[in-house]
Design goal:
The chain has a six-stranded mixed sheet. The chain has a five-stranded parallel sheet with strand order 8-7-9-10-11, sandwiched between helices. The chain has 256 residues and is of the alpha/beta class. Helix 1 links the parallel strand 1 and strand 2. The two termini are 33 Å apart. Helix 1 packs across helix 8. Helices cover 35% and strands 18% of the residues. The mean pLDDT is 96. The structure holds 2'-monophosphoadenosine-5'-diphosphate. 2'-monophosphoadenosine-5'-diphosphate binds next to loops. The site of 2'-monophosphoadenosine-5'-diphosphate has 13 residues, from loops.
Length: 256
Amino acid sequence: MHYGLIGARLGYSYSKIIHEQLASYTYDLIPMNEEEFKDYMDRKDFAAINVTIPYKKAVLPYLTHISPQANAMGAVNTIVNRGNELYGYNTDYDGFLYTLKHHKINVAGQKVLVLGYGGASLAILQVLKDLQAGQIVIVNRTVRDGAISYEEAKQLHTDATILINTTSVGTSPDVDKAPIDLAEFIHLSAVVDIIYNPSVTKLLSQAQEMGITAVNGLDMLVAQAKYAVEYFLETEIPDTRIEEVKEYIEKNVMNE
Ligand code: ATR
């Protein structure tokens, strides 16, 4: 029985370091292909796991219980094995909620632009809905399911007050790329980028130059792990640990 993270490609993951800062168990990174995934889920030979791309939806049929938030967004990132019954949660949701609270970003009634409509946007969209954002505009390279194009966003939605990037555009080593130019979005008060490597993306750097609150993805990454540990060990960890672990990661893991 063990603790760990399952997904397709995990080489980049900081999760082992973060979990082992927050808890005293060993946390394994377990990359697996689809066949191995099915076998792993059938065997249930784990105490508790996190789930990442591309298995956050694929785990649903294996679960006996699923939390209301995870159910609403159709994605699970945290599974606890209790007496061979699997309980699913989504702490990406809690992690994003923490990010907004910690940086005093109030989305209620605001017009929020969300860039990207992949797996990473699901928890963010659910939080924005639950916090009653005034208008949520999804912007995507591929226009589908109600998402609009970047061109349309620039023409019709420069009055947005909050912008959240859920795409991978700007991730190291492509640090000179940004998903959008903020110059015309003069009403923005906050920009959140889910990217944490680099810690200041080109998008966030532009936001900083404009005097806008600029938040990277490290809060969400560490906070989702803290909430996962709470489910794993049925314990409570104070939020101050999130800030301590963030600092540890910034000092010891990033900019290596
Ligand atoms: P997932 O997170 O679900 O695995 P992904 O392939 O990593 O998906 O893509 C996540 C999001 O980033 C998607 O919205 C994707 O846009 P498409 O739906 O058009 O593929 C977006 N994205 C990835 N690369 C991009 C790029 N170079 N420019 C703009 N958007 C991009």
